[in-house]
# Entry
Amino acid sequence: MWTQQDGFELRFGWGRQGLLTLAPVSDVVVLVDVLSFSTGVSIAIDRGAAVFPCAWRDDRAADYARTRQAILASPERCLRDGFSLSPTSLQALPPGSRIVLPSPNGSDLSFRARELKPTFAGCLRNRTAVAREAVTCGATVAVIACGERWPDDSLRPAFEDLIGAGAVLDALPGRRSPEAVAAVAAFAGVRDGLASSLLSCAGGRELIERGFDADVLLAAELDTSDHAPQLQGEAYRPPQDV
# Structure
């Protein structure tokens, strides 16, 4: 029980274990993967596309996309033409598209959350919209920072997901657990310099080194989307589909 942050409406956790621990005792879940699954979902939803999370990055992903009549995005960021995990690439999605977006963190957790509780994809650009819609599903909200992976596949807590989760929690009403208070404080500490902070953190520096500066700058936008991506069945869907 001591891991469930009982007694607080707003809770914060990390990764798969955080999801599995907090979702059963919460009314709604917000998954935060700023670089870049949640940001990509936000952009796709703004474009009027439906996004299918996928836990696989092999031939099973292609089969999954085919049976859902959806485009399969590359699980790797691509500088060439085509759709991928790069949020910048998703800015060209035609309205009405259906796309499978594999990733080892946000997409994997979304895939696992489908049968748990109402679930939203939160990031900096949609944090107020997500908070507004999340409270319509219940008063107790678990905000999960998805994190990254070390080479041994263990969870690597990521700065960008900490501040993204803090941004969502900052917009939510209710009593915050100490864990949630710490996340909000992290966001408040860099709110006036989000772009420079994301460009300077480990995740941002990795993407810059690989040529994806534009993805980091997109992810650093605050409250630029009024759409809250919610899992409806297997997919995050645009507002007209909800």
About this structure: The longest helix spans residues 159-171.
